[in-house]
């Protein structure tokens, strides 16, 4: 059926969907419905996505603790977000890098129009941004699994949210001194670079896992791990698709680019594993998935699909090299125990995506998202063809400035938080608890393999198979390998 959309008037527009007390004339029902869906998808990335991923990707004795850290952070961030943090990130300016702390719970505030640009209630905006803040803390937690004191984590979450995340969000997205300068479509710097750098920094202060855990740390359930990864990948439809806060062309291209870049990154990561190690790794493919999702995030709605493929190729190769090669050779990486390699999958991939977004951001897409008069861009690639290389170079310099600010701020603030907490509570679990794991910390275990806590004596005829069982636990995994592992 062919028709001119500009002349077509839906019979639903006036007869069945008129403005009313619940939906004023400024409320776009389609935008509102999509934003609530997108926010829910981002929430599902954390609960259950990262909770299942972390609980399955770690050694059996850390499954409960790792999952519990994510559940706690998700809950604590929401309460802190509406009490003071949202306004610090998106409210009235207090300083050039932070807003004034205030409540985000008033009915008049939550049910008002989100902004002159968005046609939906402020409640949508607050909840969506909460989901972003929550997943950042849980991503950070991936660097600390297997040894951080849970009491210290309970204090760390609100402190880091307040003094680190809100500053990055306000500076780049809110009304800070870098707003309107840094291209960060959905959080390559604000979320991923900050979580990667902060996680690595906190891991330094907390200290490494036990020697035994660093030598032998197999995932307790690879299939469940893949299920958690699936929630993360599919949930990214809301992560990048919700960033424009409206249903439009930018939303569509952002979702398309997200999945295209991610698939490319996985294939490149697997190919490198096959070339170097002669076998593919499912865990490696999950790491490649993660780097692809992270890399495309700062430019998802602002680049063409061909650029998304190129970004996927780079996100599947450069973080692979830093994780699988450079990590073994550089003492800087060896001295810090980053449990799940969050530095590589988020800091490296986030930085890479931020720079590439400054290269490939398309002027037309920038104008569509930010308006006809925008201070962003153009991308360096397009500035060459427009014979205006100066603007492209300026944008790259801004991207570097944003990366430097986020990195330095997170190193300093995360270090200060850890030092302060170390005077209040032990950052690290007791050594005897580290040996036992979940049962000692929470009085719970993820799996009961031989009945209700009963031990099972292996018959003699099974004795020879134990060597096979042990060999499985020592197989290669695509997670940072320390010299202590070799």
What does it look like?
- The chain is mainly α.
- The protein has 21 helices and 2 strands.
- Helices cover 64% and strands 1% of the residues.
- A hairpin with a 2-residue loop joins β1 (93-95) and β2 (98-99).
- α2 packs antiparallel against α3 (63-90) and α10 packs parallel to α12 (305-315).
- The longest helix is centred in the C-terminal third of the chain and has 34 residues, at 389-422.
- It is globular.
- It starts with 11 loop residues before the first helix and ends in a 13-residue tail after the last helix.
Helix residue percentage? 55-70%
**Structural class of the helices, strands and pairings?**
mainly alpha
Number of strands: 2
Low-confidence stretches: 1-15, 461-477
Largest sheet: 2 strands, antiparallel
